[in-house]
Predict the structure.
Amino acid sequence: MDLGIAGKRAVVCASSKGLGLGCAEALAAAGCNLVMNARGSEALEASAADIRAKHGVDVVTVAADVSTAEGQAEVIAAAGNADILVNNAGGPPPGMWTDWDRDDFIKALDANMLAPIALIKALVPGMMERGWGRVVNITSQSVKAPIPVLGLSNAARTGLTGYVAGTSRQVAGQGVTINNLLPGIHATDRAIALDGGVVKAQGITLEEARARREATIPVGRYGTREEFGATCAFLCSQHAGFIVGQNILLDGGATVATI
């Protein structure tokens, strides 16, 4: 399927690896020029070089922490007249409700709620003026079904979800759609970190921890960055203009819900 977005300019945050990289790769395959952001320059430059070689698109890199005002300013400056924004940031650490204090919550809000909002406020007005734009926020299945040990993530990402619910309806008339992608467990570094916590807590191997988690997923496996990226690219396409303010699960059926 031709997504109809060749030549569009897409900003993809936290895209040196994992789900963000999957989104960047899929958008590049559709012909988008990219602004790729991540904190670590080495992995970012390697991923950008690979995408340039494979897809022949223009790729600008911004090595910066998008959870900070300085990092946001760097990304916004590089974005120019961006047509597509993919918000993404690593999730806060797991723990118990007794573990977290105010500073922990502020860090989670900065990364997973306030940073996406800042980029939306900076880039969406230009999209509205041009009459076309796409925003996809990578959140988590936990906004549909909270995960007890991820209380910081539950709180921050649900806050962003509420913001998007209203904002997306206010900008849709100008040709801009905003939607959220809710990943379940995927084969990324985040999965390794979460499974590592189980290894430490239960004294089992990493392979056993993964097998136990896979057994809770109806499809019986972890997701891949490629299939996640393909879904993101579709939401950014010319075919998705009637999808507004939605929270789309990509979790292999793990979240048991009818709505």
In short: DSSP finds eight helices and seven strands in the chain. The two ends are 28 Å apart (CA to CA). The helical segments are 18-29, 41-55, 69-79, 102-130, 151-171, 189-202, 206-214, 225-235. The beta strands are 9-12, 33-38, 59-63, 84-87, 133-138, 176-183, 247-250.
